[in-house]
Prior knowledge:
68% helix, mainly alpha, 3% strand
Amino acid sequence: MTLRAAARKLAGPLGALGSIATVAMMVATTLDVLSRNFVGRSVPGLLELTETLLVVTVFLGLSYAGATNAHVSVDLLTSRFPKRLARQVTGAMWVLGAAMTVWFIMATAQRASASLRMGEISTGLVDWPLWPARWVVVIGFAAFLLIALVNGFLGLRGEPLLGEDDDADPLAEPAATETEQRA
Length: 183
C-alpha cells in the first residue's frame, strides 16, 4: 500500500464520520427548534449532543481536509515559484504544522486524560460527559498529524500533495494502469 493510499484509507472514514455528525447535528437542532415552537420547551440533552457533534465534525474533518487539499491556503508567494520549489516550500510548512500538531496532541491528551479521571460533565438540562469529546479532539489531531507528515514528505520531494493529484475524487483509489489491467 502506498503512502497516498494509506492516507486516503485513514482520512476517508473520519471525514465520513464528520459528515454524519454534521447531519445529526442539523437533525438534532431542527428537533429542538420544533419542540420549542410546538411544546414550549427544549428536548433535554439535544443541546449537549449538538455541542459534542460539533467537536466530532470539526476534529474528525481535519484529516479529510488535509488529504483532499481542502484547507484554506494562501499561495501569494508560492504561486510565483516553479512548481517543484512551491511544493517543497509547502512541504516544509506541512512539516512545521506537524510539529505544532504534536504539541496540540500532547496538550489535548493531558486534558482528555484528566477529564476522564475526574469524570468531567457539563451540567445543563442533563448531565453530559465531556471526556468523550475531549478524546475525539486527540484522535482528530493524531489523524491530522499523519496527513501532515505525508504531505510534508511528498512536498519536500517535490511531488503533488494529497488532493492535488486527482481532481475528480480526491479519496478515490488510483486507476489501474494498462499493465495492471492485463494482469
